[in-house]
């Protein structure tokens, strides 16, 4: 994958690959700084988030964050990806997916239909450009009901 660049004002930021872009777009965390993968400044983080928002979702299918040949989890994700479920959102960028998820038309049934088409990397990318309020709003549309000794996950219950 060629380098990814984004211009903020008169300064150009460059990211080596998809892995570097995802790392730099993450919120500031001490572990990322210790590992040497964090953005060097808040401006670089915003540039990474803006570049990530412009990235087509198909990039995540074409460029593996972890090489297919080296990782069983990557192979499982790629081999089990549901192209039919992905079709309705295939044309979107990461930012477009964010807007689509926040739209009132994206209800629980629609989210359930496309879920198998969204890879973990796509979900992580869109989460990196969303505010906490956005994440809560989208999560409210999802229903995950679990039963064991009691039932959890019902609407309006804690």
Brief summary of the model shown:
It is built from ten helices and four strands. With 158 residues, the chain is mainly alpha-helical.
| Domain module tally | 2
Could you give me the name of the CATH homologous superfamily of the largest domain? Answer: lyase
* Biggest sheet features: 2 strands, antiparallel
Query: Which range does the strand content fall in?
Result: 5-15%
Biggest sheet, spatial arrangement of strands: 1-2
SS field, number of helical segments:
10
The count of DSSP E runs of length 2 or more, i.e. the number of strands, is 4
Going by helix content, strand content and strand pairing, the class is: mainly alpha
N-C termini distance? 45 Å
CATH-assigned fold name of the largest domain: Annexin V, domain 1
Strand/helix succession: EEHHHHHHHHHHEE
Q: What is Rg?
A: 17 Å
Mean pLDDT: 89
């Amino acid at each position: 994958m060629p380098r990814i660049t984004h211009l903020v004002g008169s300064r150009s930021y460059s990211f080596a690959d998809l892995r570097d872009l995802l790392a730099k777009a993450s919120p500031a965390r001490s572990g990322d700084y210790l590992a040497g993968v964090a953005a060097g400044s808040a401006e670089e983080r915003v540039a990474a988030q803006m570049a990530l928002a412009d990235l087509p979702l198909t990039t995540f299918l074409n460029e593996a964050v972890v090489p297919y040949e080296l990782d069983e989890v990557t192979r499982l994700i790629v081999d089990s990806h549901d192209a039919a479920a992905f079709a309705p959102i295939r044309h979107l960028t990461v930012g477009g997916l964010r807007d689509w998820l926040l739209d009132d038309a994206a209800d629980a049934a629609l989210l359930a239909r496309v879920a198998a088409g969204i890879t973990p990397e796509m979900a992580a990318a869109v989460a990196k450009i969303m505010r906490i309020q956005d994440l809560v709003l989208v999560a409210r549309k999802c229903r995950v009901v679990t039963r064991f000794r009691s039932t959890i996950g019902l609407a309006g219950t804690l």
